[in-house]
Every structure is written in C-alpha cells, then in structure tokens.
Amino acid sequence: MRPGTGIALLLCLCFSGAAQAQDEMDSRLSGERVGDIAPGLYAAGSVSFMLDGYGDKFLLRFAGDPEIFVLYADHAPLGGRALKYDSGATAIRVAGWGGMTLYTDDEPGGVPAERTGDSLPPSPASVSLAEMQNAAEGEAEHLAYSRRLHLGFTADWSALAGDVRLRALCFDVLENTARGIARFTIVAKARTAFAKRIDAIRLALSGVKPVIFMSGRTLNVTFNAQHGYAGRASSRGIARALGQLLAVPTAN
So what CATH class is 20-117? Predict the structure, then answer.
C-alpha cells in the first residue's frame, strides 16, 4: 500500500453477520421488541452497568468508565436477542425468557446480570473550546507516555468554537479515538504498525457513517453530528477499524 493513498474503511456499526438485503427488516423487528429489555442499573458479578434505550438501539455505560457505547440489537436463537457493539462483538445477550448475560474482556464466557435499579440516560458533556483543545493535547501526551506514540490531534477549531452541541460530540469522538488507539496499540506488533504509518489524527464532521481513512500520515476520523451517539465510533470500533486498515488482526 503506497503512502499517501487514501484508504477509507466504513466502520461496521450493525450486524456484521447479517445479509445486506435483510438489514432493514432486522432493524424494524428489533425496534418493535425494544420493550423486551428493561433500561436500568444492572449488576453482573463485580461489574455494574447502566443500560438505556436510544431509539431502536441502547446505550451502555460501565461504572467507573466514562465511555458511552451504542449497542445494536440482533436476533439470537430461541427468541432471544444479542446487543452488539459497533465492532460486531456481543456485549449483552438476552434469552427469550428474559435472562440477561453480560460479556466483557475479562469474562468472555459471560456473567448473568440482574436489574438492581433505575438509570438516568446520559447527556453530552458541555466543554469550552479551550477545554477541548487542552483535552486534545492531554490525550496526545498520554499516548506518548503509555504507548510511546507521538501524535497530534486536530479538528476544525473555528467550526467548533460557535457550536456547543457539535463541540460536545467532537469531544466524545476525541476521547473514543484516543481510547481506541490505546486499545489497538496494546500489542507490540500493532504499535509498530501504527507508528510507521500515522503521526497525526484529524477529527472531521461528515454526513455519512463514521469512517476512518488515511491522508498521507494523517488518520482522519469522521463523525455525523445528526445521529448523536450513533454518529460516532466507539473505542472498540476504532480499534477494529485500525486493525483492518493496518492489516493487524485485533479482537472485537
């Protein structure tokens, strides 16, 4: 692959194993059955998490973790449903009789989850332009310290200056991108491949699904503000897309 060649990878935000022709029908069926899964606060072993409805999707948050994951509903055997990350990995499986199982990196075999209370849906953080720029510098410094990667994060600061809502979502994109890079580069082979190809990250507004692509040595990460949380990739989605872009296999 020649340096400077633009490479676009659509992040797979829904059902990786579903046939393209059935996507619309699956989405509609999932939306009709959202009521089967009760939003709220849950406990799964030592892990606490919050699950909130988001149209025909769900928002997942873990206690002590600032990231907000969008989960996409897919059909599971015997009338159940699987709630999946945008990377395609299953986060939660709900049996037809209502039992819920949470899957994590530490517990890939799954842990039974029980509802323990109510949950308030999240709202985007309110950040100033200065706070946004400081966060960009802070994430670059953290990756330099933790992964020995020397990067610069940039965005259209002038566009962000006058739009509070856009700035809040872009801040979320910044944080998820930094987490995704850290997740991907935890392995030495991935870290080496990343450092050879990328030394700058640009966050850019787009009217389509989240995409990452290369321009020279700059990794462009796009997001769609009209779709809210579903218009940006999670850290898991970023890590998976980096694996495809740099030809380094990575877990979902």
Answer: mainly beta
Q: Which residues contact 160 (CB under 8 A, 6 or more apart)?
A: 129, 132, 166, 167, 170
Query: Per-residue pLDDT for 78 more than 60?
Result: yes
Percent of the chain with pLDDT over 70: 86
Average pLDDT over residues 43-56: 95
Domain boundaries along the sequence of the chain = 20-117, 124-245
Whether pLDDT at 166 is above 90: yes
Q: Summarize pLDDT for 59-74 with one digit per residue, the tens.
A: 999 999 999 999 999 9
